[in-house]
Amino acid sequence: MIAFFLSQPTLKEITCENNNALKNVPASMRKDTNAILWCLAWQLKFEKDCAQNDDKYRLATVQVQTSESLKIYKEECILRLEAEISFLKSNEYVNDFLKLKEKLEMIKNNVLKPLNCLLNRFQLGLEAKVHHKSDKSQGAS
Question: Residue 135's pLDDT is what?
Fold first, then answer.
C-alpha cells in the first residue's frame, strides 16, 4: 500500500490543462482510472485552495495599505493640531481671550445659574397662581 502512494506522480505532473490525452500520466498508472481521478481531484482542490489564499492575501494587502494610509493621515492631523495648539498658546491675544472666556464662564456659573433658578421658580409660581385662579373661576360658573 505504501509503495502505491510513493510511486504516484505529484499533482503538478498530472493536469488536464493543455493535456487532453494525459500524456504525462505514467504508463503504470494509465489502467487505474480511480487513481488518475483521485490525483486530478486533489490537484483541483489544491488549485482552488491556492486561488482562495491568493484572494485572501490580496484583500489583506489592500487592508494593510488602507490602514497605513489612514495612520499617516491621522499622524498628519495630530501634527497639524499640535502646531495649531503651540501657535495658540504663544499668541498673546488668544491667551487674553481664553482668560476672559474663563472669567465669563465663572460669572455665568456663579451668577446666572442661581438667577435662572430663581426666575424659573418665580415663573412656576405665577403659572400655579394663574392655574389656581382659572380653577376658581370655572368652579364659580
Answer: 62
